[in-house]
Design brief:
This protein is 24% helix and 29% strand. It has 286 residues and is α+β, with helices and mostly antiparallel strands. Strand 12 (177-190) and strand 13 form a beta hairpin. Helix 1 (13-20) packs antiparallel against helix 2 (35-50). The longest helix has 16 residues, at 35-50.
Length: 286
């Protein structure tokens, strides 16, 4: 492909700048859309600003962009994005540590383990004290075993468990698997609500944590809200670009600023990935 072209389309200055962007940056994912939906909107905005006209699905092949770990639709916060050669660095982000702030609700359980699901159980919680909750948290710190939720991005025969569940198909729970919790603390306790700060490794489900805490307290609990406040070196306060900043110039500035956060050489040639990054990279962290 000749310089100044993408997918057979002659590029202008803005498009030249867009297709020269390379690296990792972070955006803010609001509550509501899927992570893939946010990524698609970002791509559309950037291609429209660059004036790139494409036909049908060719649009997906002219801009390499992907994300480094799915956030549930009901969750908000940091979504790490790779663009250009940065898509090859996303695999390292999947295994990186993440920080979350979660609000749990005592006394109710749902089929999805969060506020989007149907209530499946209700139990009294009046007997639970702040001390009880703090003591229980110690059992969920360090290297632990965790059963993933049935409603999740994990797959069976190539389809997400959440998709199978919504179709009413029988789905067996996945076996417990090892996960790591670096830190876990109680920030607020106003029954029935409690707020946790969690730092964890890849593959960890905060929804499962909240549910398991409820069971350990001889009641039940469901997650009401979830915000990812940090992913690797990217923080919500310092690095996440909100939708009004999704422009070529703002992302170029962010890439330049974030280069110092990342280890290794700028090219990251030693890093390998199974995903070329032209579509969202998935991870079961919610």
């Amino acid at each position: 492909m000749a310089a100044g072209e993408a997918g057979g389309v002659v590029l202008g200055k803005s498009a030249d700048k867009l297709f020269s962007l390379s690296g990792l940056f972070a955006v803010y994912k609001p509550k509501g859309p899927t992570s893939a939906g946010v990524l698609n909107l970002l791509k559309e905005r950037l291609l429209a600003e660059a004036g790139v006209q494409t036909n049908g699905n060719k649009r997906n092949h002219v801009l390499k962009i992907g994300h480094g770990g799915t956030l549930d639709s009901a969750a908000a916060g940091v979504l790490v994005v790779g663009i250009g050669k940065g898509t090859k660095m996303l695999r390292t982000m999947l295994a990186g540590s993440k920080k979350y702030t979660a609000i749990g609700l005592l006394g109710k359980a749902t089929d999805t383990l969060d506020a989007t699901g149907k209530v499946t159980e209700e139990k009294p919680y009046d007997q639970i004290t702040k001390g009880d909750l703090e003591n229980v948290l110690q059992k969920f710190t360090g290297d632990i075993m965790q059963v993933p939720p049935l409603y999740s991005a994990l797959k069976k025969d190539g389809e997400r468990l959440s998709t199978l569940m919504k179709r009413g198909e029988a789905v067996e729970a996945k076996p417990a698997r090892p996960v790591r919790v670096y830190s876990l603390s109680l920030q607020q306790f106003q029954p029935p609500l409690f707020t946790l700060d969690v730092e964890c490794g890849g593959g960890f489900y905060v929804r499962s944590l909240v549910s398991d805490i409820g069971k350990e307290l001889s009641t039940c609990a469901t997650m009401q809200e979830l915000t990812r406040t940090k992913h690797g070196p990217f923080t919500l306060e310092e690095h996440a670009l909100y939708e009004d900043k999704w422009t070529i110039d703002e992302i170029a500035r962010s890439l330049e600023h974030c280069t110092s956060l990342l280890p290794g050489e700028p090219s990251h040639k030693k890093l390998k990935t199974e995903h070329p990054g032209e579509t969202a990279v998935s991870c079961e962290d919610k």
